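// run 5 | inverse folding | seed 20
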């Protein structure tokens, strides 16, 4: 299993779909560099527009984690039984 499942989800402009933005220090104001659309709700507003995509990414990530857990579990099981031929009954 990986230690880190961090994925970067790039937020996209709701108007033009571009992902390069200009923003102020606390991200309470964001502007799309391509179409100049301003998001006065800032970063939060942008996240809201991208929520569907974010949810999708999160559920993809969950799937990936589950698969990795299963893989690890299979490996563990195999390892657990591997040593068995060395067990001697007296
Ligand atoms: Zn834009």
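// decoded
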């Amino acid at each position: 299993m990986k230690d880190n499942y961090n994925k970067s989800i790039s937020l996209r402009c709701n108007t033009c779909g571009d992902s390069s933005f200009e923003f102020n220090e606390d991200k309470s104001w964001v502007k799309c560099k391509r179409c100049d659309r301003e998001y006065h709700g800032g970063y939060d507003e942008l996240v809201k527009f991208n929520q569907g995509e974010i949810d999708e990414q999160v559920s993809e990530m969950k799937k990936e984690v589950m698969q990795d857990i299963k893989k690890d579990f299979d490996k563990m099981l195999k390892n657990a039984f591997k040593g068995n031929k060395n067990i001697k009954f007296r």
